[in-house]
Amino acid sequence: MERAGFLSNLWGIVEGPAGRVNGTETSNPPLKDKMMLHPFRPFALMLAGFAALQAPALHAQTQQEMPAMTQKTLALGAKTLAYLQTGAGPAVVIIHGVGGHKEDWQGVAAALAATHTVYAIDMLGFGASSKTGDDLSITVQAAALKALLDAEGLTSADIVGNSVGGWVAATFAATYPDSVSHLILIDAAGFKAMFEGTPPVNFDPNDAAEMQALINITINSPIAQTPGLAEKALATYIASGEKAISATWGKSLFGSTRLEDLLPKIKAPTLVLWGADDKLFPSVLAGVFAGQISGATSQLIPNAGHFPQIDAPEATIAAIATFLK
Q1: For residue 148, what pLDDT is reported?
Q2: Distance between CA 100 and CA 95 in Å, rounded?
Q3: Is the pTM of this model over 0.70?
């Protein structure tokens, strides 16, 4: 069957030449029939409004059980980078995906805090970070991350990134190889096929129905069906100012270096972690991308979609903690 746009390009990644997967011969042609492929055009996957639900609902921890988390900011010229800090030990920096915020990772940060100093950032353009300027590219995000390490007196850190945050993490690792101790890419975005085809939902939702459709394709957990969640997410998205800059964000992504050009340059020990049931980016990509990084390994999180930290927090925390030991 002829494939167009996103599907054609994605199968070029997965299969390589006809009958091959990542350059290796395969006798498993039904593979494509088992995969749920969805075109993705990153004009802003704005899944806002989860902050109030994250800690108690997703990580089974009350605010009282959470370790102290310090809210900090870093001036970057006219911009400001906001981040959380908690724990003690080797540094770990966590980068959320588009539509996420640093608070989404409080449960992971809390679990790692006993053995690591954890920094969870709001990317420029999101959360409490600045939403100004016309360049929010992945290169700019990676430079902001380097500035954070420098400001905190860190020569290197473990870097964890989810979705577009994974793209930032990969860019950082390829650009500043001596600054990365370990790298974890979680359902990483940024590959060439993302930019082709017709999206299955509106990634810049205008009403609650469109927001619910977006939630359904990215969140597999029952929390996705929480009454009123879509309305709350949409209201938060608009009030935060993130919707107003969605065009700037999309333009910045289109001008950023693609994942395929970054992965071979990564030198740090790397884990490619993926939700086994990701409806947005098929989990077969975990092995494909790991194969493009020297010495990298891949792991699937059962019963998890594009955001494993939401769908399967305990398994995600365990995978991260084990790799960083």
Answers
A1: 98
A2: 9
A3: yes
